[in-house]
Design a protein that fits this description.
Helix content: 25-40%
Radius of gyration: 17 Å
Low-confidence stretches: none
Largest sheet: 8 strands, mixed
Strand order of the largest sheet: 1-2-4-3-5-6-10-11
Shape: globular
Number of strands: 11
Structural class: alpha/beta
Length: 279
Amino acid sequence: MTDLQAATGASHFVDADGITLHYLDYGVAGHRPMLCVHGAAAHAHWFDFVAPGLMANHHVRSLDLRGHGDSDWAAQQTYDFKTYAEDVNAVVEKLDLRDFVLIGHSMGGMVSLLYAATFPGRVARLVVVDSMMLMPLERIEHMRAFGTTPPSTYASQEELVARYRLSPPQSHIAAAEIIEHMALHSGRQAADGRWQHKADRRVYANSHQLAGMPLWRNIKIPALVIKGSRSTRFGAQEMVSIRANAPQVQHAEVSSSNHHITLDNPRGFVEAIQAFLRT
């Protein structure tokens, strides 16, 4: 796998309690299932560049959470961790995933942690990627304020791609080709001809805290926490607290990466995952 090689997943849709959810299926059928969950305002393609390194021994799928990517937008009050976890459960049930690996990045990591703690029995291994175990209230307030502002629109897809930025801005260290790839999958054309982001901005308006540490008490399966070497969202003390609740949890730090590890260092991310899965 080269660092700039993206996998092409086949698009599929499932119904989850009246909401149509989209996921990418990279293959390969017959291998152990793996389900990947993106972060806030991201989408399933966040795993395009790591899927090639995971497909050799896993059947890899990547989910668009409600309000993201090509999944349906929903009522604002349903953009919460509990409902996201229930959506993951609905997809797991519909696809009949068993003994599978669950990987979640950022907000998706918290969703995956909550799913594994709430719906035990099907997920066999859990990977939480650079997730903040308790979002500070001032950050929550900032996100809520952002979520109530009118969404940006663009005259063309080219303009949307040119102005596309990751959040936080200082985390923009991924290769230009990868950033462009994410941007191309991040927008759609509206009825008036203008372009807008696929993510529903109201996701941020409904931001709320979820205490992650207590959830680890219910995690009995092998688990891995991954941190980006340049990221400040996760530190050594958090790992000590996690292991106090779940001693089996492993830790890996991916070099040359900030918060968006699957984009910043795809090869390093894959190596960390594969090393964990070999244990």
